[in-house]
Amino acid sequence: MGSEKALIKLGTVLDGLEYDFSKFNIHDFVEWIAERRKRPIYLKPWRFTKSIFGAWLPKDDFDLIYYEPGLAEVHTIHILLHELSHMLLNHIPIQINEKLAFTFRAASDIDLQEFEPTIVGLCRSIQYSNEQEKEAEILSSLIQTRVFRLIGLESLTHISQNPAMTQFMQGIGSSR
Q: Are 49 and 96 in contact (CB under 8 A)?
């Protein structure tokens, strides 16, 4: 899909969400998507390899989003939005390689045995090797742009109450 066509298509998807982005908060947005999909979404920090930042693993009755901890909050929110975009776009998960599948099984406090013999999901990496990854990246960027235009940078930078990050991001936000 050409990038202009993708922007138009995904802009239409964003417009059709009927979510009030003027009141955006990442935790509320996760809950809104969970309610819309009628299935809980669990956010789990996990240390990945150098090239993977997040993953969405759907299970029969809930969804898991793994994300790289310790990143700047604005980056973490982008990762979460990317994984949530897969859900919003009804993307089809793919089989995850066995090494990564073993890692998720071993690391989770949620029983992943039902994923046997393989785990399916989508991993966010710095390489967008397929159309689904490209679409999720574009939609997550469109969401961030809409939130920024409506209410500014602050809502895209706060997951926790980290005073150092708050001070740093306030300095960025004050220049607009």
A: no
